[in-house]
Amino acid sequence: MKILKTADSRMISNIGFSLMFSFTLSFLFEGQVFYGLAGQFGSDPEKYIFSGILAQFAGLFSCGFFVRNLKQASRTATAGMAVCLLTAVPFFFEPSVLWSVCFTAANYASGCALASWGYFLMIFTPKNQRIKSCADLLIFSNILMIIVNITTEHTSPSAGLALALLFLAAGLTVILNLNPAHFTPETETVKRKETVRTKKPMIMLYLFIFIITINSGLMYQVVNPAFAHLSELASLYWSIPYIIALTVMRSFYSKMKRSVVLYTGMATLGASFICFILLGRNAADYLIVNTLMLGAFGIFDLFWWSIIGEILDYTDNPAKTFGIGLSANVLGILLGRTIGMTVTSARLSDAEIVVIALSVVCVTLALLPPLNRMLVALIKKHVYLSDEESMADYEYKPATGQSRVTEPLTSRETEVLRLILTGKSNKAIADELFISESTVKTHTRNIFSKYNVNSRSELFSILLNNRTNI
Fold first, then answer.
1. What pTM did the predictor assign?
2. SS3 readout for the chain
3. What are the structural domains, with CATH classification, of the chain?
């Protein structure tokens, strides 16, 4: 029986879930296909949207409570996709009670399927590559969504739904070919003794996700309707800035400081709402507002998706951790939509709406410093350094000795590596070994080269993985 390689499994799982997620984005979750179908049959889409978002939230939030291993995650993902395929059939016909039932059921099934990706991400993707996997899923699914939206706009909503279902069926086929029984993971889940220490920063992260995505809900309810007359342009361009932001961050993530990127995203989001009030409603104005807004959302989404991905090994249930994170996003959008509907019915001016949006930005700005401190402690210290510091001296040699190096370390490089693993800075290492800081940097570069890594976090990850297999 053929054993799937890790790289192949990672690619297959990413493609399968990207295809499924494109269906969710284009149809279930306030997708253009659903709005097009409702308009085609003269039905009010809003009476379905609220229950659909709630069902999506419920699926994401509850999945981790009954999915506890990769096999169950695989079954949940495939069952969820199959349910989505079946429940989409009534939407080719005129609205009936089946629309409400099937739309709610499909959203719940979709939420469960997407949350189950937490296990696939943890097992099939190395920790230092998870930001790329998250970016790949978001980029690919949004590209497919654009294709479906263009089909919906220029052909018909039914044709758009058929194409979205084709992508979903392809995703189901791909995941079915990724049988967990055929795969032996190179590393098992790391059981943390101090999982309680992850709870506070994760709660803070979930709170950040919830609050920042309130503005996503406002976008759906206030900003997008203001440019409804530019539907052809929106169907093509809407996600382009989002995809570009994801691509840039994916390519240069190792050279970026997360805090700087997040503050840049905050400034960009604030600027988008200011431009919304100052500019008009023509095509050029739309391009400016949408570029700023969706670019900012691309930064935020990849930030928290990748953060959650990095700590999956240090949680009891990846599906629960990942699903709750996404459910916080959905809940924020739901609250934002509710606020948007309220201010619209109250006939507030654009200026008053922008003040609400900027207030949300200010709250998230206040959350950033403590959130950043907690995440640094969790990812850089708790996940890696604290574990390496707890290793007795006799453990260093086996851990480093069993790691794959292109050539043996020199005695001085071994000394430098030992001090790196205790969390010391280059300056501290230089002081302890009575050498210059530039010499320490040279030794560090040599160590990185011999272990084929680009950063300390990647080095820690390799050594930690080898330690767990000793």
1. 0.77
2. CCCCCHHHHHHHHHHHHHHHHHHHHHHHCCCHHHHHHHHHCCCCCHHHHHHHHHHHHHHHHHHHHHCCCHHHHHHHHHHHHHHHHHHCHHHHCCCCHHHHHHHHHHHHHHHHHHHCHHHHHHHHCCHHHHHHHHHHHHHHHHHHHHHHHHHHHHCCHHHHHHHHHHHHHHHHHHHHCCCHHHCCCCCCCCCCCCHHHHHHHHHHHHHHHHHHCHHHHHHHHHHHHHCHHHHHHHHHHCCHHHHHHHHHHHHHHHHCCHHHHHHHHHHHHHHHHHHHHHCCCCHHHHHHHHHHHHHHHHHHHHHHHHHHHHCHHHCCCHHHHHHHHHHHHHHHHHHHHHHHHHHHHCCCCHHHHHHHHHHHHHHHHHHHHHHHHHHHHHHHHHHHHHHHHCCCHHHHHHHHHCCCCCCCCCHHHHHHHHHHHCCCCHHHHHHHHCCCHHHHHHHHHHHHHHHCCCCHHHHHHHHHHHHHCC
3. 1-188 (1.20.1250.20), 197-389 (1.20.1250), 391-468 (1.10.10.10)
